[in-house]
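Technical note accompanying the year-one report. For the benefit of new consortium partners, we illustrate the data format agreed upon in the data management plan: each record pairs a sequence with a C-alpha coordinate string. No post-processing was applied to the example shown here.
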Amino acid sequence: PRHLRGSGPAYRLQYPEQWDRPAQLENAVQRLTAAREAGVRTIVDLTPVDLGRDPVFIREAAERSGMQIVVAAGFYYQIPFHFVGRPTEDLVATMVRDITEGIGTTGVRAGVIKCATEPEMHRMNERVLRASAQAHRQTGVPICTHTYPENRTGLDQIRVFQEEGVDLGHVVVGHSDDSDDLAYLEQIIDAGAFCGMGRIRI
Protein backbone atom coordinates (compact mmCIF):
# COMPACT_ATOMS: atom_id res chain seq x y z
CA PRO A 1 0.00 0.00 0.00
CA ARG A 2 1.16 3.51 -0.84
CA HIS A 3 -0.08 7.09 -0.94
CA LEU A 4 0.23 8.29 -4.51
CA ARG A 5 -0.72 11.87 -3.73
CA GLY A 6 -1.96 13.46 -0.54
CA SER A 7 -2.40 16.79 1.17
CA GLY A 8 -4.85 18.77 3.24
CA PRO A 9 -7.76 19.08 0.77
CA ALA A 10 -8.82 22.52 1.99
CA TYR A 11 -5.24 23.77 1.76
CA ARG A 12 -4.86 22.53 -1.80
CA LEU A 13 -8.21 24.01 -2.78
CA GLN A 14 -7.38 27.48 -1.46
CA TYR A 15 -3.71 27.60 -2.52
CA PRO A 16 -3.66 25.77 -5.86
CA GLU A 17 -0.59 27.73 -7.02
CA GLN A 18 1.49 25.81 -4.48
CA TRP A 19 0.72 22.48 -6.15
CA ASP A 20 2.48 21.63 -9.40
CA ARG A 21 0.10 18.93 -10.59
CA PRO A 22 1.89 18.15 -13.89
CA ALA A 23 5.21 17.68 -12.07
CA GLN A 24 3.59 15.51 -9.39
CA LEU A 25 1.88 13.40 -12.03
CA GLU A 26 5.10 12.95 -13.98
CA ASN A 27 6.91 11.91 -10.81
CA ALA A 28 4.16 9.41 -9.98
CA VAL A 29 4.20 7.95 -13.49
CA GLN A 30 7.97 7.52 -13.43
CA ARG A 31 7.91 5.74 -10.08
CA LEU A 32 4.97 3.53 -11.03
CA THR A 33 6.59 2.64 -14.34
CA ALA A 34 9.81 1.67 -12.57
CA ALA A 35 7.85 -0.49 -10.12
CA ARG A 36 5.97 -2.16 -12.96
CA GLU A 37 9.20 -2.89 -14.81
CA ALA A 38 10.45 -4.50 -11.59
CA GLY A 39 7.48 -6.86 -11.59
CA VAL A 40 4.84 -5.04 -9.51
CA ARG A 41 1.44 -5.17 -11.17
CA THR A 42 -0.92 -3.76 -8.53
CA ILE A 43 -0.64 -1.25 -5.70
CA VAL A 44 -3.23 -0.19 -3.14
CA ASP A 45 -3.46 3.56 -2.57
CA LEU A 46 -4.78 3.99 0.97
CA THR A 47 -5.28 7.75 0.83
CA PRO A 48 -8.75 8.51 2.23
CA VAL A 49 -10.82 11.53 1.28
CA ASP A 50 -9.65 13.64 4.23
CA LEU A 51 -5.98 13.16 3.34
CA GLY A 52 -6.50 14.53 -0.15
CA ARG A 53 -7.53 11.45 -2.16
CA ASP A 54 -7.49 12.42 -5.84
CA PRO A 55 -9.13 9.68 -7.95
CA VAL A 56 -8.65 11.53 -11.24
CA PHE A 57 -4.93 11.92 -10.56
CA ILE A 58 -4.69 8.22 -9.66
CA ARG A 59 -6.56 7.17 -12.80
CA GLU A 60 -4.26 9.25 -15.02
CA ALA A 61 -1.17 7.83 -13.33
CA ALA A 62 -2.49 4.29 -13.71
CA GLU A 63 -3.34 4.74 -17.39
CA ARG A 64 0.03 6.27 -18.23
CA SER A 65 2.12 3.77 -16.26
CA GLY A 66 0.13 0.59 -16.88
CA MET A 67 -0.06 -0.04 -13.14
CA GLN A 68 -3.30 -1.30 -11.64
CA ILE A 69 -4.15 0.90 -8.64
CA VAL A 70 -6.82 0.12 -6.06
CA VAL A 71 -8.37 3.30 -4.61
CA ALA A 72 -9.67 3.57 -1.04
CA ALA A 73 -12.98 4.57 0.46
CA GLY A 74 -13.02 5.58 4.10
CA PHE A 75 -11.66 8.13 6.54
CA TYR A 76 -8.57 8.88 8.58
CA TYR A 77 -8.48 9.08 12.37
CA GLN A 78 -9.51 12.73 12.30
CA ILE A 79 -13.08 12.47 11.08
CA PRO A 80 -14.03 15.06 8.42
CA PHE A 81 -15.87 18.00 9.95
CA HIS A 82 -18.59 17.47 7.32
CA PHE A 83 -19.73 14.34 9.19
CA VAL A 84 -19.46 15.52 12.80
CA GLY A 85 -23.13 16.49 13.08
CA ARG A 86 -24.44 13.83 10.74
CA PRO A 87 -25.54 10.27 11.55
CA THR A 88 -23.22 7.31 11.15
CA GLU A 89 -25.48 6.11 8.35
CA ASP A 90 -24.16 8.99 6.23
CA LEU A 91 -20.59 7.73 6.71
CA VAL A 92 -21.64 4.25 5.66
CA ALA A 93 -23.59 5.51 2.65
CA THR A 94 -20.64 7.58 1.45
CA MET A 95 -18.29 4.60 1.56
CA VAL A 96 -20.78 2.26 -0.07
CA ARG A 97 -21.41 4.77 -2.87
CA ASP A 98 -17.65 5.21 -3.43
CA ILE A 99 -17.37 1.44 -3.81
CA THR A 100 -20.49 0.58 -5.79
CA GLU A 101 -21.08 3.68 -7.92
CA GLY A 102 -17.85 5.65 -7.92
CA ILE A 103 -16.22 8.58 -6.17
CA GLY A 104 -18.16 11.75 -6.90
CA THR A 105 -18.63 12.08 -10.66
CA THR A 106 -15.26 10.49 -11.57
CA GLY A 107 -16.50 6.99 -12.25
CA VAL A 108 -13.54 5.66 -10.22
CA ARG A 109 -14.76 3.00 -7.80
CA ALA A 110 -12.97 2.20 -4.55
CA GLY A 111 -11.87 -1.36 -3.83
CA VAL A 112 -10.73 -1.16 -0.22
CA ILE A 113 -11.86 0.61 2.96
CA LYS A 114 -9.39 2.66 4.99
CA CYS A 115 -9.88 3.56 8.64
CA ALA A 116 -7.47 4.63 11.37
CA THR A 117 -6.79 4.78 15.09
CA GLU A 118 -4.11 7.02 16.61
CA PRO A 119 -2.79 7.51 19.20
CA GLU A 120 -5.55 5.62 20.97
CA MET A 121 -9.17 4.67 20.42
CA HIS A 122 -11.65 7.46 21.05
CA ARG A 123 -15.33 7.99 20.33
CA MET A 124 -14.91 9.39 16.83
CA ASN A 125 -12.40 6.66 15.87
CA GLU A 126 -14.81 4.00 17.00
CA ARG A 127 -17.64 5.59 15.06
CA VAL A 128 -15.60 5.50 11.85
CA LEU A 129 -14.50 1.91 12.52
CA ARG A 130 -18.08 0.77 13.01
CA ALA A 131 -19.17 2.60 9.86
CA SER A 132 -16.29 0.97 7.98
CA ALA A 133 -17.36 -2.44 9.25
CA GLN A 134 -20.92 -1.85 8.10
CA ALA A 135 -19.76 -0.69 4.67
CA HIS A 136 -17.56 -3.80 4.44
CA ARG A 137 -20.49 -6.06 5.26
CA GLN A 138 -22.61 -4.39 2.56
CA THR A 139 -19.96 -4.53 -0.15
CA GLY A 140 -17.55 -7.32 0.74
CA VAL A 141 -14.44 -5.20 0.08
CA PRO A 142 -11.50 -5.61 2.48
CA ILE A 143 -10.53 -3.22 5.26
CA CYS A 144 -6.99 -1.91 5.70
CA THR A 145 -6.28 0.14 8.80
CA HIS A 146 -3.81 2.64 10.17
CA THR A 147 -2.74 1.91 13.73
CA TYR A 148 -0.46 3.12 16.49
CA PRO A 149 1.22 -0.15 17.50
CA GLU A 150 2.93 1.34 20.56
CA ASN A 151 -0.53 1.52 22.12
CA ARG A 152 -1.63 -1.80 20.57
CA THR A 153 -4.53 -0.08 18.84
CA GLY A 154 -4.79 -2.93 16.35
CA LEU A 155 -6.43 -4.96 19.11
CA ASP A 156 -8.96 -2.18 19.72
CA GLN A 157 -9.82 -2.28 16.03
CA ILE A 158 -10.19 -6.05 16.04
CA ARG A 159 -12.56 -5.84 19.02
CA VAL A 160 -14.80 -3.36 17.21
CA PHE A 161 -14.74 -5.37 13.98
CA GLN A 162 -15.64 -8.55 15.85
CA GLU A 163 -18.56 -6.78 17.51
CA GLU A 164 -19.73 -5.64 14.06
CA GLY A 165 -19.53 -9.13 12.57
CA VAL A 166 -16.59 -8.52 10.23
CA ASP A 167 -14.79 -11.51 8.73
CA LEU A 168 -11.28 -10.76 10.04
CA GLY A 169 -9.83 -12.69 7.13
CA HIS A 170 -10.63 -9.55 5.14
CA VAL A 171 -8.81 -7.17 7.52
CA VAL A 172 -5.22 -5.92 7.35
CA VAL A 173 -4.05 -4.23 10.56
CA GLY A 174 -1.72 -1.61 9.15
CA HIS A 175 1.74 -0.54 10.30
CA SER A 176 2.19 -3.71 12.31
CA ASP A 177 5.85 -3.62 11.33
CA ASP A 178 6.25 -0.59 13.59
CA SER A 179 6.15 -3.03 16.50
CA ASP A 180 8.58 -5.73 17.64
CA ASP A 181 6.11 -6.89 20.30
CA LEU A 182 5.63 -10.44 19.07
CA ALA A 183 2.88 -11.16 21.56
CA TYR A 184 0.88 -8.25 20.14
CA LEU A 185 1.46 -9.36 16.55
CA GLU A 186 0.52 -12.94 17.39
CA GLN A 187 -2.75 -11.73 18.92
CA ILE A 188 -3.62 -10.03 15.62
CA ILE A 189 -2.84 -13.18 13.66
CA ASP A 190 -4.57 -15.50 16.13
CA ALA A 191 -7.73 -13.39 15.80
CA GLY A 192 -7.71 -14.13 12.08
CA ALA A 193 -6.55 -10.76 10.72
CA PHE A 194 -3.40 -9.95 8.77
CA CYS A 195 -0.46 -7.88 9.95
CA GLY A 196 0.18 -5.08 7.47
CA MET A 197 3.87 -4.48 6.79
CA GLY A 198 4.00 -1.15 5.00
CA ARG A 199 6.80 0.91 6.52
CA ILE A 200 9.78 -1.32 5.87
CA ARG A 201 12.76 0.80 4.87
CA ILE A 202 15.23 -0.67 2.41
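Partners are asked to follow this layout when depositing records. The mean pLDDT is 91.
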